[in-house]
Write a structure and sequence with these properties.
Layout: H1 23-35, H2 45-65, H3 78-92
Length: 94
């Protein structure tokens, strides 16, 4: 029996790398990716629709954090986010 098959008795301790995904979140994400697959930086209708959804998400996150919409950035990866944070610190302390 593989470790994956034994996951009901498995304690996952590597949440720094990734975390188990809630099934409801996975379902919603799969639906979204099937229905809204346009590039938000493009000018065609599906892309513009996705850009509006991203804008709404940015506003939602900003409100939840008590921030301005212009202060919320979405990155493609943790590495990109880390680089932005480090660059910000380094640039503010020349």
């Amino acid at each position: 029996m593989s470790d994956i098959q034994k996951k009901d008795r498995f304690v996952y301790l590597d949440n720094n790398a990734t975390t188990p995904l809630d099934p409801g979140v996975a379902d919603k994400m799969c639906w979204f990716l099937r229905e809204h697959f346009g590039n938000p930086s493009s000018i065609y209708p599906i892309g513009r629709a996705v850009k509006e959804i991203v804008t709404q998400a940015r506003e939602y996150v900003a409100k939840a954090l008590g921030a301005q919409r212009s202060e919320v950035f979405f990155t493609a990866s943790g590495t990109e986010a880390d680089n932005w944070a480090l660059r910000g610190v380094l640039d503010s302390h020349p």
